[in-house]
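Hey, does this match?
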Amino acid sequence: MITAKLSEADAITAGAPGLEDAITFLRRADLAGLPDGRYELPGGAFANVERYETRPSPAEGPRFEAHRLYTDVQYIVSGAETIGVAALADMEVLEAYDPARDICFGRVAEGRWEPAELEAGELAVLSPADAHAPKMPTGAPAPVMKVVVKLPV
């Protein structure tokens, strides 16, 4: 996983054309006004704009997910959230991989994952090797606007 402020993201895009396109999309002047939904990007990439309220993890721990076909660029437009991050090898799969949705779900034992706190203007790049648990609060549950750009691997 890589984290960065959008204003400093040019440093992580060198030699990564898909990532450059993602950053360009995230820098749109009208980004905060886009309605929720899917937006097509060059090269088979797409962006999902979503608004929701963060939620505490269940007693058994956060619900992790993993992808095979896409790298996620998760950008917080407004609000703040915590994303749990772990090595894919540390995730116990509880829901088998669904190729139509490019996702599987599982759990990671406490102490085997790290929290990444993101505020408005910050992003995380999560590769298929990164199991991640998004939408956790950084304190009390609160509203978030997030854009997740999916870059084909």
In short: DSSP finds two helices and twelve strands in the chain. Helices lie at 10-13, 17-26. The chain has a mean pLDDT of 95. The CA atoms of residues 39 and 116 lie 26 Å apart.
